[in-house]
Amino acid sequence: MSVVHAQVLEALRGVADPQLHLDLVELGLVRRVEISGSRVEVVVGQLVPESPVDELQRRVRAALAGLDGVDQVDVEPVLMSDQERDELAQRLDASRSGSISFTAPGARTRVLLVASGKGGVGKSSVTVNLAIALAQRGRRVCVVDADVWGFSVPAMLGIDRPPIVLGNRILLPPRAYGVECASIGFFVREDQPVIWRGPMLHKALEQFLTDFWWGEPDFVVVDLPPGTGDISLSLASFLPRAEAYVVTTPQPAAQRVAQRAGLMFQSSQISIPVHGVIENMSWFTGDDGKRYELFGHGGGEALAERLQVPLVGQVPFVPALREGGDAGLPVVVARPGSEPAAAFSSMAERIDEELAPTRRDHPALRVV
Ligand SMILES: Nc1ncnc2c1ncn2[C@@H]1O[C@H](COP(=O)(O)OP(=O)(O)OP(=O)(O)O)[C@@H](O)[C@H]1O
Ligand SMILES: [Mg+2]
After folding, report:
1. For the chain, which end, N or C, has fewer CB atoms within 10 Å of the first or last residue's CB respectively?
2. Which atom of ligand 1 lies nearest, measured to the CA of 281?
3. Residue ranges with CB less than 5 Å from ion ligand 2
4. Of 200 and 347, which is predicted with more confidence?
5. pTM
6. The dihedral of CA 317, 322, 325, 331: what is its sign?
7. Which residue's CA is minimally distant from atom 8 of ligand 1?
8. 114 Cα to the center of ligand 2, angstroms
9. What is the pLDDT of residues 153-187, one digit of tens each?
10. Ordered structural domains, the chain, with CATH
11. Quick one: which of 64, 103, 59 has its CA closest to 77?
12. What is the pLDDT of residue 357?
């Protein structure tokens, strides 16, 4: 029996656009469906030239392949005109009511703040690798680089494109290694100092978070600047449902500084739960196979005890990790079976299993 038009449309309602994360029918992106015998041809609106067309085609094919009587699916993307794009952007913009989509009450997104009172302990490296490791588990993950003065996440992810702007209203985060990335660095010239302070900084961060089109990812991993300053305080007010992870090295002196961030989150004014401590640069494995504790011992455990949270992972010191960061090829991608990659994967597994079951059911986002 041949498949009917209505069945195809129904199946397409289950297909999310890879950039807008809403279904193709609701977005008005299904332009034409033609059925001849067991062959279905679907013409789909392509948002921008950079859109991930392969992924869109894969999703449509996967959804239609399951229908009885369908043997062949052809998906033809057609680039939207400027006017079509503007109209869609206007509709999307009107639907989001000026708030950050993943913080809406009932949103299932888990927001992880990666923080430390101390600089240079590996917050950004942890953020990037942990985010990719979560994406490798099949989660949709966004990374937010909130380090206004020392943004480093796009470079670590090898992203050198700015976000795509849809109809002058909506920013689509660039994507690398399966994660989407929004960095405050996209809006700041590298050769100019950033002099936002207090209220201006607060406003800029808020604008930055609301202008991006996030949908409702499974995880948003936020890279914070070192310390306990204005940015952390502002983010805590925008992202009240977040949970924090504190990064430290094994050195007792580093741990004492790192803990300030943890204590700030746990304070009654901020009240963001700390879910764990991540110890970075824990040891170096020599050619002789022995572990050398280059940066001392016990900082992660001591901090976990002080904050009364678990030590969720230890990442060894490996030159390849820095090289990967500099080259825009994170270690979990460049060397998947290596010691640090395994540490990030098991951390991701632990975090995913711990946080995923408590997700709340949520109403699907709707475009008005
Ligand atoms: N486990 C590791 N092994 C080797 N090098 C590492 C490791 N972790 C981080 N690094 C390197 O140490 C430097 C600092 O790391 P990173 O930028 O991630 O720290 P940070 O805490 O985000 O720093 P900042 O406070 O400046 O934001 C980088 O050059 C990074 O590549
Ligand atoms: Mg950093």
Report:
1. N
2. 1
3. 123-124
4. 347
5. 0.92
6. negative
7. 122
8. 10
9. 999 999 988 899 998 889 999 999 999 999 988 87
10. 5-80 (3.30.300.130), 102-358 (3.40.50.300)
11. 59
12. 47
